[in-house]
Design a protein that fits this description.
Strand content: 25-35%
CATH class of one domain: Alpha Beta
Shape: globular
Largest sheet: 6 strands, mixed
Structural class: alpha+beta
Radius of gyration: 26 Å
Distance between the termini: 53 Å
CATH topology of one domain: Nucleotidyltransferase, domain 5
Number of strands: 35
Number of helices: 17
CATH architecture of one domain: 2-Layer Sandwich
């Protein structure tokens, strides 16, 4: 059971980023957070996980037997698709429909871009094979499965050396009998080769996204499964016998045994942790509407949280430069129909490379220096200026206190990179060039937040900005100011907040069933029966992961739309299912439609599309330590020195006080300009901004309006 047991004392979260791997240990009785950071190992991310855990255990003298719970957030699934390193796979589908992956969507992200090419299918046409088998739109059998033809196709795939096989027949979401039998035959004919059925992975209508989701899962299976197994083995070798769980795209966690078979749920595993961590910290401080901005070493991720819950999208694309979960734009990547936290990811992080393009314009990202060689200031062979180098040049990062003093940054190399690659080509001095890099990066991140708020009809001034990641607290006040956001909430351990988020969420499983029909004529008995089957199935999944029924919460939703619409909205099921359910849900849908789109038509008939059941297995959350009251003598207690720091608001370098965050207490107040240093990040407080420390150690920053100092 995923809770405190025996004498175990620590819960561990491990988040792998593009530059660093973060490890957080939370002591269960006191709520103390212990953190460690190590460079990510791109060739084998599991090695970075183990390096981080080994470092944490050694640094804090913790016995591996004291580890009660382990959660991991990973980018391996995303990277496998983006880098084109998925397994060689085959697809079995209904005869005449082998081109479904080639045809894909006919829309394009840029209508008039004559150079646009659709993403290359994950399975080539030569390995997409059709067999006679046809189910109708009502689930009736039209053409029986030709088992002899299927065995012949299996032989072709076996001889081609495929590592996995996807099966996606028409209308299998209504009647999976053909797929079930095909799976049995393929397992017989291709022993040792995993077979993935669309009716298991994505039992929803719409042929292409269902097939695409199944194919993505199929090409990931032989890559992600061994990675998880390797990590489990390495944990076991160290005497850590707590079961391994992984963060999913939807912000829940799943047992490793489940994710080995359905790795498609891990595609946005890494970014999800930052959003959950931000929501967890904000809730403790009394904020439930927030903008989560996670600025790591490679990318920045922006997400919206309303009433404590991140927005969830039902479909997104993987393989594109920006994961399109918050837009209707199609054609950038491969559709995946699984629940995902709706976020926007852009190539702007601490390691993002600044460059002057042929036209003389300064750009920042999306290329990143990554973990190897990293920014120029790391002195590991990198010579390209990055956002981190710019912050070093401007005095915002203490080169002698990087990672708490474990490493020293080379200011001269940072200045050289900025001077040669940016300042000289643009005719600027090195400080102005560094400031320009910061401004460009901030503008990109501001645009991302503007996109998920203002362009969606949401006023960002009604929200609090919660930054995460090593670069988040350095950039966040300037970004908040540009958006008109008045409050920034910096978590106690922002640089590792994604790892904290891994420990602040629950086990979660969602099952979807297509249930097409008008709401006013829905059969309540059939509706109740299908929901009952789904309830039982999700409860069984949680029981298999050790969660008792008393710690399980079931949420029921129905995807609905107006009759004739192509896309639907999730609507929570209201009340018990009876003869009034259709009318009650129609009213609820009208209300939901008006909230999302600003209008509704209560005279229009509605229809049910999908039924959804989400089972949540409650996990003990970290109990953060509360600080003693301070409020007076903060300079005597926490001031660690002064240095020159550049602030555009002040017109140049300013003699700036430096504070040790570990020595700040409840109600301590600091006025900008100031720098607050800690092991995992640096918080930049510009002139005019003020900071107050709350009881959980969060920095509550009041941001002055733009144009004031």
């Amino acid at each position: 059971m995923p809770s405190s047991v025996n004498n175990s004392r620590y819960r561990v979260g491990v988040d792998v980023g593009g530059t660093f791997t973060d490890v957080v240990l939370v002591e269960e009785s006191s709520g103390d957070i212990l953190a460690a950071k190590v460079p990510t190992v791109p060739a084998d991310p599991s090695q970075g996980c183990i390096d981080g855990i080994d470092k944490a255990l050694a640094t804090f003298a913790i016995d591996p037997a004291e580890i009660a719970f382990t959660v991991h957030g990973t980018t391996i699934a995303t990277n496998t698709i983006i880098e084109g390193k998925g397994a060689k796979a085959g697809l079995i589908t209904s005869q005449g429909f082998r081109d479904v992956l080639e045809i894909a969507y006919q829309t394009r992200p840029s209508l008039y871009d004559v150079f646009y090419d659709k993403p290359t299918p994950l399975i080539p046409r030569s390995l997409c094979l059709g067999v006679p088998a046809r189910t109708g739109s009502e689930g009736e059998e039209i053409v029986p499965l030709d088992e002899d033809a299927l065995r012949a196709r299996a032989a072709e795939l076996r001889q081609a050396g495929v590592e996995a096989i996807a099966v996606s027949f028409l209308h299998s979401y209504l009647n999976p009998a053909h797929e079930r039998r095909a799976g049995e035959i393929l397992t017989e004919e291709c022993p040792g080769i995993p077979v993935v059925l669309s009716s298991d992975v994505c039992p929803e209508f719409r042929e292409y996204p269902r097939t695409s989701t199944t194919v993505v899962n199929t090409v990931l299976l032989p890559r992600v499964g061994p990675y998880i197994q390797r990590l489990e083995d390495r944990l076991g070798e160290r005497g850590i016998d707590s079961s391994l769980h992984l963060m999913t795209s939807a912000g829940g966690i799943m047992a490793a045994a489940t994710t080995k078979h359905q790795p498609v749920h891990l595609i946005e595993s890494g970014p999800a942790g930052g959003v959950i961590g931000a929501a967890f910290i904000a809730e403790l401080s009394g904020f439930d509407n927030l903008l989560a901005l996670d600025i790591g070493g490679t990318t920045a991720k922006a997400a919206l949280v309303n009433e404590g819950r991140p927005q969830i999208a039902d479909e997104f694309e993987v393989g594109s430069s920006a994961v399109a979960t918050v837009t209707a734009t199609r054609g950038q990547g491969y559709p995946v129909r699984t629940p995902v936290i709706s976020l926007l990811e852009i190539g702007a992080g601490g390691g993002s490379i600044a460059n002057v393009d042929p036209g003389g314009a300064l750009t920042v990202g999306p290329e990143s220096a990554g973990a190897d060689p990293g920014p120029a200031c790391y002195a590991k062979g990198g010579n390209q200026p990055t956002l981190t180098d710019a912050n070093v040049v401007l005095g915002r990062i203490n080169p002698d206190f990087f990672l708490g003093g474990e490493e020293r940054l080379d200011t001269d190399l940072a200045e050289k990179a900025v001077r040669e690659k940016v300042a000289a080509p643009m005719g600027l001095d090195v400080v102005d060039a560094a400031h320009s890099i910061i401004e460009i990066a901030n503008a990109k991140m501001t645009s991302a937040l503007y996109f998920i708020t203002v362009l969606q009809g949401i006023d960002p001034r009604q929200y609090v900005l919660v930054p995460s990641g090593g670069a988040g607290p350095m950039q966040s006040v300037a970004i908040a100011r540009a958006l008109g956001v008045g409050t920034v909430l910096v978590p106690p351990a922002p640089g590792v907040n994604s790892a904290v988020g891994l420990l602040a969420t629950d086990l979660k499983h969602e099952i979807v069933r297509t249930f097409m029909g008008r709401a006013d004529s829905a059969d309540p008995a059939r509706l109740a029966a299908v929901f009952g089957e789904m309830d039982d199935a999700t409860r069984a999944l949680l029981r298999g992961e050790g969660v008792p029924d008393e710690r399980t919460e079931i949420r029921r939703e129905i995807d609905m739309c107006y009759v004739g619409q192509s896309f639907q909205l999730r609507v929570a099921l209201v009340g018990d299912i009876d003869g009034k359910t259709g009318a009650v849900m129609t009213d609820a849908f009208h209300d939901r439609h008006e909230t999302v789109y600003g209008f509704c038509n209560r005279a229009e008939p509605t229809q049910f599309v999908n039924l959804r059941v989400t089972a949540i297995g409650q996990v003990d959350r970290p109990r953060l330590r509360e600080l003693k009251i301070g409020g007076a003598g903060v300079d005597e207690r926490a001031l660690k020195g002064r240095r020159a720091v550049y602030f555009g608001e002040a017109g140049g370098m300013v003699d700036c006080p430096l504070y040790d965050r570990e020595k700040l207490l409840l109600d301590d107040a600091i006025e900008g300009p100031a720098i607050i240093e800690q092991m995992d990040t640096t918080t930049v407080i510009p002139p005019g901004a003020t900071v107050k420390v709350d009881r959980f150690g969060n920095l509550v920053i009041s941001v002055p309006p733009e144009g004031t100092a």
